Backbone:
């Protein structure tokens, strides 16, 4: 089935090439650059994933077939990290979308100081991730962090050991990334909301539809074509969000307990020089993401027009 | 103009642009020397001044200095050297020599210097590995010591018993709000590198030194010494409460600078910052372990230069000449004077700049009981095996006995995986 599809696609490409030769000539420099900076490293990664390249076989590596893939799937840590990565992605994207769309709905209404609120809410996105992550790390400190000081002084709660317990550290990473990620969804949703014709709401009001019905039957369906690609991107970014996990938990601390797949790959490759294993793991991550994204877009019919 | 001509012109433009952008990436100009360093800002500034002086003396040469953080430096150098490019000289701690040698990306240096020249250096500054010299240090030490605020601690504790007694007096809640405002001691105790001195103080070590000398890295972590050292750190935190419950490097550093910690365990790279912050500090040995009578054994390592495997011909002789200049007593003493580093040349070590500097003298006292950091690549697996088990102690997930066992098991497994 897939072979037939691939053959059809290749045939279609060559037919198109004949029809639009000039267009392909014009775009070929861009394809060339893309090939050098994206395609070549990707193909090289595939090659390495079938090799034994490592510290002791750095220059004299050779092909070992599927051995590295076997190691990936035989490692219980892979499944534990994969589970954690799924939880990390689902929780993050859920809150990004809920908070982002919620704030966009508020900001889309007539509101005094709307421009100021909008600017303030975009700030987490505008500040470099590196700075944000390290600032949040400081805020989660047991004795001097603002988070615990608020818990103690405002709510009379005992302080939480955010950074020295596995659950606390994972929670700290989640909170930081939720704070970092909602502005993107908010901006996208706001753009989507502003493109919905106002006449639709007027017609709905004439028909006696309440606010909730308008939200359910007009706003959300018309936001879908904008939000689905944004959510797909959000899933990919969050699934591969190395910076926040690495910086907030200081490289997976405590006890390598906060790793998601991408930080686990980094550690395997650069700490232990396991290039073949790391490349195989990267390919596995690539296919997981590909499957999730394709399935998500297919199920939500995200690319289908609504007007 | 036909579409074919347009295409060819565009293609030429792309190729030309690529060449312009990447010019110099694979340069092999013998007069153009590149150094990659991981040294901190003050060290880099001083090195830049020295390089400018050298370029004034050698107008045909151009020497560039590029900074990378330690891990980045290591990874980028591996990738660049494999591709036949990268720096000509790489500066950093001696433990990078192990993996670089295994990957064959640095070259032996013993044939580039005369035996008389090498004899001018302290033996600890010459990093030999598998029979070859792969690094020459411009400084030695790089070891942890006890740094204390003289305004808060007039006399530093000599033993751990004294540390605990003094610590309980120095740990204070000034405003009685139930939160500690001043700790006796703060340091990055969650990192194995900062734990190792105590492991040695209880008579243990990370690897079997005899097996290592025979080329067989054998972790020795599941020992009573590891258990006792873990228990000691836990007691400082949970029983005596003289150290913060959570502490990483930056937090400890900030606390010491702000007077919120009376003592810190830190290395020579930090002293400049404490002087700049106006802390009235001095150094002392990390207190002797009362139970064993042994001194804690921080790891020491030289920091110095290795030559990339890609340096050959005329460039190699230019690089060696530059090294002779950078490793001269005069240049080393500039670092000593400005940054309190321990010079690697014997004659520099006997200079008055070293002898009349109390900070350096106390640092040298600590160095006397320090142990060299193994440069075998397996050391990385050992650090990474120690870290999770050790950190789980502080969340109460493991006992010291369980942590020691897990450290050993993980270290053996990781070393095996690295060599697969």
Residues:
């Amino acid at each position: 089935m897939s072979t037939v599809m691939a053959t059809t696609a290749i045939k279609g490409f060559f037919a198109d090439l004949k029809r639009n030769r000039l267009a392909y000539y014009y775009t070929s420099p861009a394809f060339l650059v893309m090939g050098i900076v994206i395609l070549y490293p990707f193909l090289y990664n595939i090659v390495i994933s079938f090799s034994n390249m490592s510290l002791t076989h750095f220059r004299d590596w050779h092909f070992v077939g599927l051995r590295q893939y076997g190691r990936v799937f035989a490692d219980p840590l892979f499944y534990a990290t994969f589970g954690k990565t799924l939880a990390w992605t689902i929780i993050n994207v859920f809150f990004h979308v809920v908070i982002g769309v919620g704030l966009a709905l508020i900001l889309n209404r007539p509101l005094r100081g709307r421009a100021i609120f909008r600017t303030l809410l975009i700030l987490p996105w505008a500040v470099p991730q590196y700075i944000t992550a390290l600032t949040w790390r400081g805020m989660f400190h047991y004795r001097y962090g603002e988070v615990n000081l608020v818990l103690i002084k405002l709510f009379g709660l005992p302080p939480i050991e955010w950074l020295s317990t596995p659950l606390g550290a994972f929670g700290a990473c989640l909170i930081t990334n939720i704070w970092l990620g909602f502005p993107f969804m908010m901006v996208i949703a706001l753009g989507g909301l502003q493109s919905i014709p106002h006449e639709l709401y007027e017609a709905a009001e004439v028909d006696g539809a309440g606010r909730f019905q308008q939200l359910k039957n007009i706003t959300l369906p018309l936001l879908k074509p904008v939000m689905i690609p944004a959510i797909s991107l959000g899933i990919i970014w969050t699934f591969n969000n190395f910076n926040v996990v690495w910086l907030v938990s200081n490289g997976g601390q405590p006890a390598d307990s906060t790793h998601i797949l991408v930080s686990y790959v980094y550690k395997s490759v650069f700490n232990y020089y396991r290039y073949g294993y790391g490349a195989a793991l990267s390919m596995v991550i690539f296919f997981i993401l590909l499957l999730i994204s394709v399935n998500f877009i297919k199920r939500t019919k995200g690319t289908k027009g609504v007007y | 103009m036909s579409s074919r001509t347009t295409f060819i012109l565009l293609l030429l433009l792309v190729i030309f642009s690529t060449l312009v952008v990447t010019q110099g990436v694979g340069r092999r100009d013998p007069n153009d020397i590149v150094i990659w360093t991981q040294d901190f800002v003050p060290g880099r500034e001083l090195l830049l001044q020295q390089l400018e002086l050298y370029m004034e003396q050698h107008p045909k040469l151009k020497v560039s200095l590029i900074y990378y953080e330690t891990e980045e430096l290591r990874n980028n150098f591996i990738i660049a050297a494999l591709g036949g490019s990268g720096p000509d000289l790489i500066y950093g701690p001696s433990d990078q020599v192990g993996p670089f040698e295994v990957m064959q990306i640095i070259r032996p240096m013993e044939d580039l210097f005369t035996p008389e020249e090498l004899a001018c250096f302290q033996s600890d500054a010459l990093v030999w590995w598998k029979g070859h010299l792969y690094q020459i240090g411009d400084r030695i030490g790089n070891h942890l010591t006890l740094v204390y605020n003289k305004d808060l601690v007039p006399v530093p504790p000599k033993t751990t018993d004294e540390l605990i007694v003094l610590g309980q007096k120095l740990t204070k809640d000034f405003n009685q709000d139930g939160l500690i405002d001043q700790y006796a001691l703060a340091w990055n105790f969650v990192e194995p590198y900062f734990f190792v001195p105590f492991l040695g103080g209880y008579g243990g070590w990370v690897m079997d030194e005899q097996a290592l000398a025979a080329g067989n890295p054998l972790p020795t972590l599941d020992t009573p010494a590891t258990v006792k050292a873990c228990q000691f750190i836990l007691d400082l935190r949970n029983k005596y409460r003289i150290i913060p419950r959570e502490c990483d490097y930056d937090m400890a550093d900030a606390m010491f600078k702000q007077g919120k910690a009376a003592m810190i365990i830190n290395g020579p790279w930090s002293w400049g910052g404490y002087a700049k912050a106006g802390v009235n500090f001095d150094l002392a040995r990390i207190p002797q372990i009362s139970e064993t009578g042994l001194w804690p054994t921080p790891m020491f390592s030289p920091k110095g230069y290795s030559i990339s495997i890609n340096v050959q011909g005329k460039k190699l002789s230019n690089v060696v000449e530059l090294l002779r200049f950078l490793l001269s007593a005069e240049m080393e003493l500039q670092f000593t004077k400005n940054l309190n580093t321990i010079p690697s040349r014997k004659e520099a070590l006997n200079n008055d700049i070293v002898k009349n500097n109390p900070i350096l003298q106390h640092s040298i006292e600590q160095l006397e009981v320090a142990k060299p950091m193994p440069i075998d690549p397996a050391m990385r697996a050992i650090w990474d095996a120690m870290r999770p088990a050790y950190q789980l102690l502080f969340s109460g997930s493991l006992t010291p006995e369980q942590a020691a066992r897990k450290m050993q098991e993980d270290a053996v497994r990781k070393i095996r995986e690295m060599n697969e």
User: Anything to note?
Assistant: The mean pLDDT of chain A is 88. The longest helix of chain A spans residues 76-107. Chain A has 13 helices and no strands.
